[in-house]
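DM from R.C. (forwarded with permission)

"hey, sorry to bug you on a friday — could you get me a structure for this? deadline for the figure draft is monday and I only need the backbone to look sensible"
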Amino acid sequence: MGKILFPLIILLLGAGVGAASGFGVRHLFGPPAATAKAAPAKVETTLVPLPRMTAPLVLPDGRLSGYAAFEEQLEVPIEDAARVTAELPYLQHAINMRTYRIPLAAGRDGALPNIDVFRRVTLDAATEAFGRGVVRRVAVTQAVPA
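My reply, with the result:
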């Protein structure tokens, strides 16, 4: 029995000493404590609704397939909400100047609007109308054929 018990005890003691020495080395020479980085300040945002807009549904070959009505909301910082609301006609103008050139029609017959393309058009127009970084996101809340 002593022949079997002695190697088992030596094995357990070796594992204990190894674990203790590893813990000690990590405690003394381990990585430095992570310094707390200042979290970027969160900017409070609000949603500004756009009036209902009608846009032409243009096929990729340039033909007009119909019209679609869109309702959207813009996510903007609270301090810019009043200015964005007052300058919405400039945004609508910028959107109108883009929609006839960009194929917005989707589907086989072109009767459905491509919502993702219209969202990108609105975001590009918002950058032109209000400046870079004012509009965080665009949410298309409704898109129906007109």
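R.C.: lifesaver. The two ends are 92 Å apart (CA to CA).
me: no worries. Residues 2-29 form the longest helix (28 residues).
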